[in-house]
Amino acid sequence: MTAIDQAGAVRAGEELDVAVVDQYLKSQIPGLDGTPEITQFPGGASNLTYLVKYPNREMVLRRPPFGRKAKGAHDMGREYRVMQGLQNVYPYVPRMLAFCQDEAVMGAEFYVMERLQGIILRGEMPAELSFTPEQHRKLCESVIDRLVDLHSIDFEQTPLVELYKPGDYVERQISGWSERFRNARTEDAPDFEEVMAWLDAKKPAQVKRCIIHNDYRFDNVVLDPDDPMQIIGVLDWEMATIGDPLMDLGNSLAYWVEESDPPQIQMMRRQPTHLPGMMTRQEMVDYYCKRTGLSVPNFDFYSVYGIFRLVVILQQIYYRFFHGQTQDKRFGMFIHVIKFLDGYLKEKIEKSEL
Question: Taking 80 as the threshold, does the pLDDT of residue 102 lie above it?
């Protein structure tokens, strides 16, 4: 099926030394023959993802972006350990193959994992997948079902218990993301002080402690090519931790653009969530609560938090572009999105009944 996710040309400034990669992988993984071909998967505004293709085997390499990195971000060792720790309790994690801690090899830590052959929905629905509205809804349910599965794992019985931090997760996130924004703010960006103050004033108590993905969305799940209603993989565990499940859901829905959203939001869409039959954000919340038994009378806090968190991530990436630390011209447009979301969030706050 041509809808299977494909890698393409490596972006300028993000090339890898093929000889270095080949030498390292052959020292760690037995049975590799020939010289690898290295291509790059689309996306990759955060960590960079490459396909390393040998004549007899394919694998995926993940490394941090080039240039300045936000403190605590892009921890390859942590992401590797999270995925290793989930291997026996969450069957949607790719098998890990090698982790390189020696930054002298490539200039940064990196890891290698098996490649999952599947479909990733990155923007528009592939033409080969002529789904009905009913199938779109079923796909939404599958996405939420896998998130519910993750939130249901007893983390204390896994190696991920090491990620647990005492104290209230909600409080920690609001103060943490606010600090990250202030540290990454550029002179052309709004200050978001009103939004941060509202989040601090309206923060609820943590509803539960569980493993959360923290970046769970359509383009981080892999669909089965033989049955695209089924999810066979979940990718990009960089920000996974022990936290609050409703905040995880709020993060996911920050990327969920509905058919009825205004044109400025439609322009930000990176997933085919606008198609007939796709659940609305409220329907996603309702279905999640039905599956978990949680009650959320008002989701406004989690919605504003998820979008603000997205703003911070965009600002951190834009900071690298603003200061000439990346050549990727996509990132130069982020400031326009950030400015729009400042007004969008202020309007949501004004209308909120919290």
Answer: yes
